[in-house]
Amino acid sequence: MALADIIKKMFGTKSDRDMKQVRPILDKVLAEYATIDKLSNDELRALTEDLKKKLRECEAPFEKRIAEIKDEFEKDIPVEEKETLATESDKLVKEEDKEIERVLDEILPKAFAIMKSTARRFAQNPVVEVTANDFDRNLSTTRDFVKIEGDKALWQNHWMAGGNEVTWDMVHYDVQIIGGIVLHQGKISEMATGEGKTLVATLPVFLNALAGKGVHMVTVNDYLSKRDSEWMEPLYMFHGLSVDCIDKHEPNSDARRKAYECDVTFGTNNEFGFDYLRDNMATRMSDLVQRKHHFAIVDEVDSVLIDDARTPLIISGPVAKTQDDEQYKIFRPYVEKLYASQKSFVTKTLNEAKKAIADGKEDEGAKLLFRCHKGLPKYQPLIKFLSEPGMKQLMQKAENFYIQDNERQMPEVTDPLYFVINEQQHSIELTDKGHDVLAAEVSDPNFFVLPDMGSMLADIEKSSLSEAEKHEKKDALMEDYALKNERVHTMIQLLKAYAMFEKNVDYIISEDGKVKIVDEQTGRIMEGRRWSDGLHQAVEAKENVAVEAATQTFATITLQNYFRMYHKLAGMTGTAETEAGEFWSIYKLDVVVIPTNKPILRIDEEDKIYKTKKAKYAAVINRVEELRKAGRPVLVGTTDVDTSELLSRMLKMRGIPHNVLNAKQFAREAEIVAQAGQSSTVTVATNMAGRGTDIKLSPEVKAAGGLAIIGTERHDSRRVDRQLRGRAGRQGDPGSSTFYVSFEDKLMRLFGSDKIAAMVDKMGMTEEDALESKYLSRSIETAQKKVEENNFGIRKRLLEYDDVMNYQREAIYSRRRNAMSGERIEIDVMNMMIDAADVMVEKAEGMSYADFSDSLMGQLSIDPGFDEAFWTSSKKEEIKKALTAQMNAVYNRRMAAMIEKVYPFIKEIQETQGEKWQNIAVPITDGRKVLQLTFNLKKAYETQGRELAKSLSKVIILYQIDEHWKQQLRDLDDLRQSVQNAAYEQKDPLVIYKLESYNLFASMLEALDKDVLSFLLRATIFLKQPDQTEQAPREAAPQRRQDMSRMQTQHGDLATNGAPKTRMPIHVDKKIGRNDPCPCGSGLKYKNCHGKGLV
Q1: What angle do CA 62, 64, 66 make, to 5 degrees?
Q2: Residue 161 has pLDDT above 70, yes or no
Q3: Which of 304, 737, 1086, 1090 is paired with 590 by a 20 to 30 Å CA distance?
Q4: What is the pTM of this model?
């Protein structure tokens, strides 16, 4: 007995321990259900109101004190006191959350029993009658399933969901209650296909929605979010809970904000993230749609938090079309010729390798084979030859020899090539020979050669040129470097497009001529997704379709960091156990495997391993024919579009009718999945087709043996294989699953065991023979684990990079939110003064008093507020405090002077025409820019003009934050790619990135503080002409909501691969005119939107 088995026997499995913890709670739920299910319909609803009341009572003390603090913020109290109150308010929110969780745990048995009883009543009664309340009456005007007759509300048990009429027929099983308990605890429930995850979610959603803080139900696509919201909403609404789906409403609209205000909000992961970004680009509190991120349940959590987590959500705007976009088209012919030359050379080399091996020169032949592999690893003749006995082992011996001693002898293999591909690292590199060919094409030997910046800059410094001439030379050198850098990057990306990305495997061309990425996990088209670093433009150029222009990032966040903002997060899926380590490491989410309601009868056969793909596909077709004749439906899973179409052609040749479901036919997904369980039906589909739906079987099919799953290739991830297996065997149905594998498959080529290949050669296995054993299946799973570990490492490292940006994002967005609400604006201004004083005094070390005074006057237009004696005799901390006090005094004087001039007008207008005017505008200037400051007339009157100062600070801080943050995003993107070169100096790029990004952020904050204070400390009422008096306030035009629906959203890639990016950042040189359209996409002129009052 193995040690692991002994430990399991002594301590039990993790699943056993999990069930032991949950079982007592389940028993309490079942005990409550026995009592609650006997209540009348009205008594059941009254019990729900009692639970709501209990939660409101626990929340009341916290909400009362938070409201009191909010009122205190409106008063004229010292900044220090406001800071103390702000800290207290933040602490109260966390304490309230803890108290809510305590009460929810206490009422869980009753709440779960109420929901189960509700489901039972709808399942057994066509109409559920209750005494009508206001909620019922209002609901009856918008929902067909509620009718009012006198003082009664009649709830139907059938309604429309996802375009189809459904009749409620489900009641929670015990295992579903266990799944609900796990979700409420903030964990992941892994439930097998057909176990009813959507129904399971109703339990924790109902319980947590009673608190009134909002529950987000997250799905992977808008069809599921709309369907599930319509399907489940009657159960929630029956108890007075409001439900909506954000995907039914336009972004940044009142309807979407109301959806977020509901007790239960459905939506897709992307839209939740995009709304967060839009909220942090809004200019008014009334434009915000989201509220606090309290509790979210993520459906198909592995897809959202693992597969999609490494790619950021991006809101961007257009930039002027640059020469970079045209370079892909210009250089395409050169790369096409280079790729053709490489292919021709590899073909010739492969023939030489075969001849050398046949002549007994194995060492020479192995070297040539390895050269072919480094040149074109996906070259099909090479892959076929390596599947012959002993060939793969021969090449691997050569590979082991040349990678030793830090690849000292590798140039012997790679120098004759035009470019070198590392398939595992997904990188490509031009050789000297490749450079020479490209240089000859453009008749310039240095066209693609980057200058040695270090030595050339040193030469300029040593020269006898004047300082002005040196600067001119350096600028010219930097321009030349940037230009050539971009050329090299463009060439590399084009090479990747030709050599590493295959049409109908990695992407398809849509009918409208767009390059659409195919999700390797699901086979679905990933709408809106684009490869980063110019790779997408390279593929567009390769396919000779329109190359889309670059965009400028306005806001971005990864799903990893978005979902980590929630107070409590949970998830459900059928396949999470294999990624349990990653879920815990990144999200602190524990995976709990939920038992099935009925035992799984599916028979999972051992893998069948063939030497070649040809033999494997022939065996698949033969097996399909056998199963079809037996009356069993067959689902054939493939990893890409090309394979599905190849099998489709083979089936047609045999005269076997079938359906194909891949990225090109996903519009027919619902129709094809509905037919997939019928007798003798054959469906060819990419791996996780039909995720989120069930294949249901008739009694005849069950009697014949159920659904047969045939996998045509092992995927890199075990999760995907389990998803495919899980299509069969739902709810105790019979079924079977078998995977057909060949040594030519990608996984076997990259990570297949040498021992397997050696054993196959010794056995003298022919193409038609199939290997089948537990040992071989375990070896394949070992290869999958290697890929999973590698992918986890990539995702974790990407997260470490993104955590740096996330820290900065949270700091900026927090400051921005404070500015927009205005509650803590004085605290932020004071902190800016403290920080600015600290920086200025630190930088002034060694300066004379006169120089420091001149510097201060130039930057902020203020004097130090102390004399030279204080400057020379005081410590730094004393000088900083004195300078901060001076800034604050000047700021207060400036604000007081403006209030003194404007308040008489405010008073007169409010007292004589207050009912007509809501907002008024006053022209404010710092001597360089003029802005029309808009503020609320009534508030300004009630605060005796102090609202003017607060509004001015809000407008200036918001504008400066947005401008500096957009530039910071560009700088961070540039930095992230440039630090990859640190690896050549034996340094960790991540460490360098963290250090340099901190310096960038510090510099950005310093510039932000200075620019904000510079305006505030110079601010005064604008004088239109020297001989005129100040302009009186005028009525402000009504403020329009910023329309972000036209802004471009995309789910872009964080990184294409681990190779360094050479592309320079986008710098926008074109100045936006005051009458030009605002780049935010609002449709307004720049002067009336983000440039309001600043141009």
Answers
A1: 70
A2: yes
A3: 737
A4: 0.74
